[in-house]
Every structure is written in C-alpha cells, then in structure tokens.
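Hi R.,

As promised on Friday, here is the backbone we talked about, encoded as structure tokens. Could you run it through your design pipeline when you get a chance and send me back a sequence?
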C-alpha cells in the first residue's frame, strides 16, 4: 500500500458522508452556532461574557469568539456526528471486502480518522465562512481583517477536533464503548476536558480559553476598567442586562501555546493508531478482535426475544412461522385481540424496554432511591435519578427498526394503541427511577415541585419516543437529552424540566402544564411520523 492510501480512503469516505441529508443538517447547525456566538447588541443570551463586558464586533473578537464556540460545541457534539464510520462498514459488509484486501490495519484506521476530521473541519469551515457575514450583519465594525478572523480557527478550533476524530475511532473499536455507554462516557470525558481546558494549567494549552481571557483582561485594564472580581464565562448563558463593550484587538499566541497545539495533533494521531493493537479489521480469523458480531445472527436473536413478548394468540396465528415466527412471513390478522388489550400491551412493552438490563443497573436505581428517601433535600438527587436510565429510554421508538421488526409490529395491534403503550412503558420507568423525590415532595406538601416532577416524568419518555421514531436511531436522543439534562442541572431555568432550579422555594422553570402539553405534542408527532411511514409502505 502506498502512502496515499489513507488519504484516498479518507476522501472516498468523506464524499460518501456528505451525500447524506444528515450532513446538511450539521452544516445548518454550524450556521446557527455562529449566530449564537455573535448575538445582537441587546441580547441577554450570550456565548462569551467577560465580567459583564464583550468586545466590539471586530474581526478579532468575532473570529476568536466563534472559534472558541466551535471548539467547545464541536468537540463535544461532533463526536456523535462522526462516530459511526467503522460500524457502517460492518453493517454494509464493506468491511468484509476490506478484510480480504491487502489494506493494513493502521492505514484503515488513519483513513477513518482523517475522514472524521474532514467532516468536523468542514463544520468549522462553515463557522469561519459565517464569521465575516456576522461581522457585517452586526454592523459595529466595517473593517475586515482576514488574519485576525481566521487564525483563531486554525489555533483554537481545529486542534481539539483532531482529538475528537481520533476518539471516535477509538470508541468504535472498544466493545464496551461502541454503543450507548460510549455516548455517555464521551459526554462526561468531553465535559471534563473542556472545563479543565479553560484553566491556566490545562495540558497542551487546553482549548485556548485561558490565553484569550488573559488578553481580554489586559485590554480591560488598559481601558481603565476594574477587572477585580470579574469572571470570564464561555458557553450559552443568560445575563441580567446586555453586556457593555470594550475594544479588543486579539491575542498573540506564545511559543508554548503553539507547541501545545502541535503536541495535541500528535496525541490525536497516536490515539487513532492505538486500536491497531487489537482491531481485527473485520477479519473472522482474528476472532474476538473483530469489531462487531455477525449482524444477521444478532438481529435474529433480538427478533426471537421481541417476538416472544407478543401475546400467545398473536405468536401462534397462521403465517407467523410457528411459536417464534420470523418477519417476512405473511401475517394473517383474523380478529382483534379482546380483553385488556392496552394493559397486555403495556406489560409487553415494559418487558421489551427492559430486555437485557443488568441486575447491577437495578442495584444503582435502588441505591439512588434509598438515598432519595434519606437525604434532607430529595430534589437534589432527581438529576442523578433521571440521568441513569438514559440508555434504556433511548430504546423507545427504535427497537423495531434496529432489529428489523417494523413491519411485523406495525401490523399489530392498532398503531395508536401500540405507540401509547410504548410511551406508557417509558413513563413507568421514569416514575420508578424518580419515585423517592416525588414521595418526599408529596409528604412535605411541595405540590409545585411534585407537579414539575410529573411534567418531567411525561416529557422525558415522550422526547425519547419522538426522536426515536423520527430519527430511527437511539443515538440522537442520547445526545439531545444529555445536553438538555446538563443545562437544567447547571441552573438554566428555561430548560428545567425536572423542577430542580428553585426561586423563592418554588420551581423556576416552565409550568408543569406547559411541560406536559409539550410531552403530548411529542407523542402526537411520533404517531404522525409512524402513520405517514406506514401509509407509504
């Protein structure tokens, strides 16, 4: 294989990715991020707050702020955009062709790493293109400085994305991390890296926040503004009043910062090559080193288990292929199931939803519940209780697609009844995991808190179901919910669906009626999408 092989593989993979509608959505999201990074002068939602000040919208300020926002959000969220590259080769059986080729494992890994980076870099490129447009749109400075505008993207945004691209390759080759567990682990790891990367002693210069902040503080001092006690914040935050302005002409990186950027590139390449020690490159002769199990066998096992949860009179009907039927056989629906249809459906959906959940998982639920009854402030444990089931919630609306059972389960029984039973199963799981705070709030007559809890119990499974039905994958809900939970946990009252943000002892977030109404709208949206898909089949 020549030295150009990884580049050719990366370019081919990148071209295949950019043809998908999801890629256009990610680029639109990058444009939205640019708009958030440079809000209108009177906005009370900002990305960067320098102790109540912001820079005049010059090329230096807009380029640096947009680059920092890109480093922050693309490092965290970009991972979920690119992490499916190796798994896709396995699903499409391209990996089996590659296993028979002379392609080296290291070449394949570098190719996937470069492909991941190209996707992330293209999103950063959209930010860079949008930055001058935002400068002219805001109209505070008509002088365009291309170097001051674009240099921050090269020094601040791109190096962390190298690490993100490499981490996506690493996670896809580690059995424990290739699924939903990896999504949660990356969320935690990226938050630690990003928060730690804003400190003075951040390894390899972090994401450049500290260097930019120090330069901004120096500019404030030069302009006679007292900086004592003023805090620097990066991230979407709400301010009580619009930020005041000061003049800032950008920062000049020192040699240590530039060396750290180069070292970060080297670390990313090393992380991308690390799986060569165990990755089997889809070669069955290497046994456990193969990335994924045989998809057909895995799917058949899941089909057997899910079909086994259907009522006996359905499983044993003619055309179902015997007591454990197979999708693809003609299904003859004779008469509707009578009796307590909904409750039987609910019981079946609960069994399917909780299929394969470890006893250790339930042990953690029990420990959190006991702690909720013992702690003086039970509402403080609700965020923990309602982050633990995220991987189980993400199954809602997706299992029938991921296991090839959409046609079979869509035929029985009434679609509306089945979807409501699936949502009810998610609500039941939400209630069980968060029961301790609800009981404690009811016992202390905290009816406002109990109402907020009830709204959240309806909303979370409704969000999972709607995203699962619409996107047909569990990953979207995992990413969206982790971000929503993080913002609520950090005191963003407007997004507090749990009622944990308090003002004057009462929940400061949306009213329970509004949250419950949103939950019903999401369920209706899921039903509309599933009905539309069923109609065009």
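Update: got your reply. Pasting your designed sequence below so it's all in one thread:
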């Amino acid at each position: 294989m020549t030295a150009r092989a990884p580049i050719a593989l990366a370019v081919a993979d990148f071209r295949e990715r950019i043809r998908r509608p999801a890629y256009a959505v990610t680029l639109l999201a990058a444009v939205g991020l640019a708009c958030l990074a440079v809000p209108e002068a009177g906005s009370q939602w900002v990305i960067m707050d320098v102790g109540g000040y912001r820079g005049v919208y010059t090329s230096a300020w807009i380029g640096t702020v947009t680059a920092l926002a890109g480093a922050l959000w693309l490092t965290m969220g970009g991972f979920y955009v690119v992490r499916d590259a190796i798994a896709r080769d396995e699903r499409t059986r391209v990996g089996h062709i590659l296993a028979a080729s002379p392609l080296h494992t290291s070449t394949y890994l570098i190719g996937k790493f470069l492909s991941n980076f190209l996707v992330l870099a293209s999103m950063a490129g959209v930010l860079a293109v949008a930055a001058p447009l935002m400068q002219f749109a805001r109209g505070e400075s008509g002088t365009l400085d291309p170097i001051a505008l674009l240099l921050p993207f090269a020094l601040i945004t791109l190096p962390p994305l190298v690490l993100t691209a490499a981490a996506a390759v690493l996670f896809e080759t580690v059995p424990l991390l290739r699924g939903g567990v990896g999504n949660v682990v990356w969320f935690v790891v990226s938050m630690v890296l990003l928060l730690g990367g804003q400190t003075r002693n951040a390894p390899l210069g972090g994401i450049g926040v500290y260097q930019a902040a120090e330069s901004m503080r120096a500019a404030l001092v030069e302009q006679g503004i007292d900086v004592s006690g003023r805090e620097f914040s990066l991230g979407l935050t709400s301010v009580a009043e619009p930020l005041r302005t000061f003049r800032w002409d950008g920062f000049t990186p020192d040699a240590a910062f530039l060396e750290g950027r180069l070292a970060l590139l080297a670390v990313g390449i090393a992380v991308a090559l690390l799986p060569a020690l165990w990755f089997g490159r889809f070669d069955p002769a290497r046994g456990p080193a193969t990335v994924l199990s045989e998809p057909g066998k895995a799917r058949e096992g899941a089909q057997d288990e899910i079909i086994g949860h259907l009522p006996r009179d359905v499983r044993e009907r003619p055309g179902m292929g015997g007591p454990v039927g197979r999708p693809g056989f003609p299904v003859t629906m004779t008469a509707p199931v009578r009796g307590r249809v909904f409750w039987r459906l609910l019981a079946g959906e609960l069994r399917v939803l909780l299929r394969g959940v470890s006893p250790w998982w339930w042990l953690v639920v029990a420990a959190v519940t006991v702690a909720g009854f013992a702690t003086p402030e039970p509402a403080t444990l609700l965020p923990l209780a309602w982050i633990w089931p995220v991987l189980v919630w993400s199954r809602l609306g997706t299992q029938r697609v991921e296991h090839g059972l959409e046609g079979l389960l869509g035929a029985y029984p009434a679609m509306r009844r089945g979807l409501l039973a699936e949502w009810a199963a998610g609500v039941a799981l939400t209630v069980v995991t968060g029961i301790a705070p609800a009981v404690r709030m009811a016992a202390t007559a905290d009816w406002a808190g109990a109402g907020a809890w009830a709204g959240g119990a309806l909303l979370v499974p409704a969000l999972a179901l709607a995203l699962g039905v619409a996107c047909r994958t569990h990953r979207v809900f995992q990413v969206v919910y982790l971000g929503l939970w993080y913002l609520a946990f950090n005191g963003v009252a407007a997004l507090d669906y749990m009622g944990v943000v308090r003002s004057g002892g009462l929940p400061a977030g949306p009213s329970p009626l509004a949250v419950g109404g949103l939950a019903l709208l999401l369920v209706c949206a899921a039903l509309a999408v599933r009905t539309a898909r069923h109609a065009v089949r």
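One thing I noticed while checking it: DSSP finds 23 helices and six strands in the chain.

Thanks again,
M.
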